[in-house]
Amino acid sequence: MKIGRNEPCSCGSGKKYKKCCLNKEATESQIDSIDNYNPIELIKVLGLLQLVPENFGKDLRIEVALGHLIAVLKKSTLDTDYGEFNPEEALKMLNAKFPKDYREDPPENSFTDNILFNGQNNTVFAGITEESVLVVQSLLDTIFRFKNQLPEGFKEAVFFGVTFIFDIHQIICDKLGYERHEFRDQVRDELHVNANLGFEHTDLLEFTKKELLEICEKEEIIQEFTLDVKQYKFNKQNINSNQLLFKPFVFIESDQKYILALPSSELTAVNEYILRKAYQYNCLKELVDIYKRTVYSNCLRIFNEQLNYELTDIGLKERDVFSTPYISVLSFDRDKFAIVALVDNMGDGKPENLGRINFPKSEISKVVKQIKSIDSNHKIHLIGLSCKIDSILGSVLSVPELPNINHITILTPLDLNVILTLWKCDHLTLWQYQKAKDRAEEQIFITPNFKNLTYFNWYYRNFESFFHSDENYDAISFSFYDQATLIRLANIKSDTSLAYMYIDNELKGVKVKRNDNVIPSYVLVNNPFPEKQIILLDTYNVPIWIAYSIDYYPLGEGISVALALGITELYSFISEKLNILAPYPLSIELEFDPKFLTNEDPSLQEDKELYYTLNLSTKSVTIFIPLSYGNVIINSENNIADKLLMECILQGMFDLIDNLTGNRFYDKMKLRFLIDSAFSDTDQRMIIPFKNAVPIQMNPTHITRHRHIQESDISFIRENILSWAKIEDLNHIKTKKDKTNLCNQIVTVLIDKFRETAKDFDFLSILRATMISHESLIYYKEYHEESLTPKVRTMGKYTDVVNDFRKENSKNVNGMISYRCMIELLMAEPPKGKNKISTEDIDFLHALTEQIINFGNLSDVIKEEFSDTKIEKLPSGRIGIDHSFFNNELRQFATSYLDNEIADKLHKGTSVYDIDEDAIDKVFKKEWGIGLFEIAEIAYFLSSYSLYKEESSFVMFTEEKFINLFETSPFSKDEIFSFCEHMSLESRGNINQLPKDSKYRQEEIYLWRYNRQLSYIRRPLLKIINKEGVTSYAWSPRHLDMASENLRAIFYHGTLKVDKEHKGIQSLLAAQNHKNGKKFRRTVYEWLIQNTSLHIVPHEVPISPKDALKAETNMGDIDILAVDFDKRAVFLLELKNTKQAKNTYDFKRDIEVYLSKLIPKHIQRSNWISEHKDLLSKLLEKDVSDFKIISNIISSATLPLKYMDNSPIPIYAFSEIKSKGVEILF
User: Fold this and answer.
1) Is 1070 contained in some domain?
2) pTM score, two decimals?
3) pLDDT tens digits for range 163-173
């Protein structure tokens, strides 16, 4: 009797039949049906399905199906008649019988990957086994790349076995057109074929014995990977014991053929084969030891080279106190040490003990004790390197806690590689990450058993915090899919592969990884020439190496990148010729005149041409670059330096090919024509000027690695601001006064936190460290800006250079402003402690300063009624601020301002001021005791002195020594004292108070205000009086130069603040503003004449009772009157030479002035012209009575009014018109 689906099941369970035995009976029916298919054909179909990228990750169901089929194969007889095999029906049956396995997690590997072995790249099927690529690559490197005493017989057996498996799978990949890093998203849960790989390809996996012996001459190697069907047992509960994983070939006696049943287990089979052979040759323990040493030393090298950790013995003279060599102590900040210890699951090297965890607890405890004995305040980060030699075994993810250790992080080598590939990391990154994770785990549950790279992804996505910025979560969960995606992204981004280069005149394979650059290039993983910087250009079939000595950085980098770009640009012209050398590599060596390392002036050198020499045996071209070539780079307004370089290298490369082939490929005239054609845009400059010629701010001497404001510190501050301020809730914050008071309260709390954090540090230690950090950012910002134009000209086709510049520039500017203000805070109230400062402490104070600026600025925004910003307490506990005003009006304004600056750079815009230096200096000397340009000369003198005589980023002399510096200079003592009076910043005793008897307003010490007389940018010389009363002066050269430049700039713009009694300087400022206005009109007028077809009246056009445009009253002048006769339009252009608004008060001033005074006058003139077109026609001597009258304001700087939605007339910055064209005026 048939049971209905919704009726009670007959088994008595009480469940409905559809929820109980229906599925069981269906499964049993399917099991019966699979036995009706030819198992050999089904095995081939299942093998084929593994070659479909979209099936990647569905391996477990395939392995279960194969296990069942091989069991059927054991029992089958030769005379079994299965009938005609229908692969489509078979596939339907397999999907019904073997649906998605609950144990199938998203695969972490790519479908295909790359293994470097036997001097070549091998495309492999990575399989789903965790870290299989990394483990197998490390094993092969251990055995074959590094010196060891492993038995030769073992090495030979491994070589032949691995070569056999790799060759088989490479043949399959080649036939299917698969390259490394193939991957397709799974769009369907069921197994399927695709348009490129149908059932007709099952023969790809079928081999005769003869065919296999042609690949591998040793039959015993073939048998090593062939399953013994008669002995086969399959336990589907313990899938890792499946012998088919290790022996993926099945021999079919009836057909006398081998079927590669499990191609997806390629690396698992290789991994197990190596370990099996090591056991057979009695060298497993030795292999494990060497493998661990290899992996551990590679990781230590990464910590040192990429994270700047420094190896130290911290007084541990006796290494034999350890029972393991796999513990190292590395210093990564002034008061912080990392104990890097190997944590593995390899047991003692015996097969039965593989999987047993080794954790050197007692040895780590000894190291901790030693570190603490030196200084109990030292902080310790235990980093356990989780290492495995068998990819099937899981990784060690946790270790027991140990006393006196601040943080513990367990990293696999894969974690380390992915984190460093996907994110920009420095020496504090891992410490800050683990500190944030530990802090979060005290309050919320973080799902365990994921790799650290997964947690790291959340941390970075969440602004370097584990707490959500808005929401309050009790727990954080993660996805294995996200984890897998991260691993694949890192794999593709790094793209490790093998390339050939000549080492000691011998062609050798070297490991390279993709360079993080816009051009297709690679860098060496382990550089055999540490004294050189080397990149591999991968544009052509022939590998092209470019190298230079690191002594000549950054000039060498600039020229090598220019070469790489130039050669890439010329691909269509020269690829056919260069590829003649393939597959042999071509090397380009840059050799510089040693005088580049001196301060000699290139312009004083005898002119010498670039020249080259050839080495035919190593196929290399050496370019010799004389110092006089530097003069070409410095003084050329066009790309002549680039052309000369490209001409020399192309001559060298073609000459090399001629000598190697005996053919003639070029002559000089054709070559020059080729280069002129390829680089016809003379603005296409690729080489950035070097230190002998660049301004002081771009001098790279003694520059440390720059640091921006750290997101981890910002997140921590935002998480704790309200608790520091002892504020429970913000429900009472309603009015403008409430909000400004709250902001001011937070500013006070943050200043108190700054004071509390800094108080225990030695003043000079913290001041010096901050000034050095500031110097690094100045250099980086200037170099970044200087390189913008050549990057846009040359790299713009590869990436969005301008957008990248915007992002980086924003971080640079914010970081510099915060460093400057931080120095002001330190000078205002010098700390009196004795401790030396660490980078972590500097970062935290830097972030506190930035938040002081932000909340101070927010207070101004609310006070000046720009925005009724909503402020509330978020569920996360943070203070929530509505950023609409900042993200809309202010961001648009800031972006437009930066874009206009970029446009000026790209159009070679420069600021040339019409000034009489002597006259200006005369007035300044009378009222300040020193001339404006004499200040600049003294600043340059001090900057140059510190760069070339002392440490470049911080110099401090006693007052006596400071004055003696100028003994041989043309400056008098009175001028020096006046310089100190007007340019020095000194302590005022309290951060929140003005100096005693100060003539300044309180606003002069508000860090978030610009153009302050008591700011570090206005007073870059620090006057320090110690407790003994000794006065010293400290400065840093780049900031001193920038401050001097800024002083002149605010004078030129007419915005220099001076005391009321300085009437003469005030008169100079008024006259300068008038000159600037006239100059701006002339500049706009000339640009319109040269770049448009508009008819321009050559002079200002007055509207008054006495002029051609006769009005009853004097209505002022039309700055520029322009006519477009084709489009029948008359333009009334009001020109305003404005300074750039940079803060809320500037905003308010601009808006009030323009809305209340300037715009109404311009509208009045525009209306009058519209009503008196007859007079206008008479003036223009052409009838314009039906012309449209268009009024516009053109400003020299971006005006915030443009973004406030209340301007009745369109406003454009001049740079915007130059960039977008005059059409935007219509």
Assistant:
1) yes
2) 0.86
3) 999 999 999 99
